[in-house]
Amino acid sequence: MEINVEHILDCLDRYGKGELTKEQVNEDLTIDEKVFLIMNQDFFETNEEDFDVLKWLDEEESFFMVVEVNENLCRQAESVLEEIGVEMPDAIESFLTQLVETKQLPVSVND
């Protein structure tokens, strides 16, 4: 994970001055920098009414992770899951549960 704190602070400073929009900040920050901001929310003053992702994850006994997946594959999977009425997090959890229980991949992998 590569994080450039100076870049993060520069983007946030420019956003605060109105030089960047939220969309531009989102585009400028790397995935690692965004994850860093999420994982270190307590460094920033927030309104108590704001949704705290980390607190919610802890309450849900969940673990947050970022996974890089082929965009086309992800969209196809979302489409199939929508057709069968399953949410992506539930499908991933089911896959991981089966992996742990059987100690093998539930699908064959071709090299």
Brief account:
By secondary structure, this protein is mostly helical. The protein has helices spanning 5-16, 22-28, 31-39, 53-59, 71-84, 88-102.
Give the topology, please:
Layout lengths: L4 H12 L5 H7 L2 H9 L13 H7 L11 H14 L3 H15 L9
InterPro entries: Arc_rbn_hlx_hlx (IPR013321)
Protein name: Type II toxin-antitoxin system RelB/DinJ family antitoxin
Organism: Candidatus Enterococcus courvalinii
Question: What would your notes on this structure say?
Answer:
- With 111 residues, the protein is mainly α.
- It has two domains: 5-59, no CATH class; 71-102, no CATH class.
- 58% of the residues lie in helices and 0% in strands.
- It has helices at residues 5-16, 22-28, 31-39, 53-59, 71-84, 88-102.
- The longest helix has 15 residues, at 88-102.
- The chain is elongated.
- 1% of the residues are buried.
Secondary-structure-based class equals: mainly alpha
Poorly predicted runs are none
Mean pLDDT equals 78
Q: Note the run of SSEs as H and E.
A: HHHHHH
Number of strands: 0
Overall shape: it is elongated
Helix percent reads 55-70%
Protein name: Type II toxin-antitoxin system RelB/DinJ family antitoxin
InterPro entries: Arc_rbn_hlx_hlx (IPR013321)
Organism: Candidatus Enterococcus courvalinii
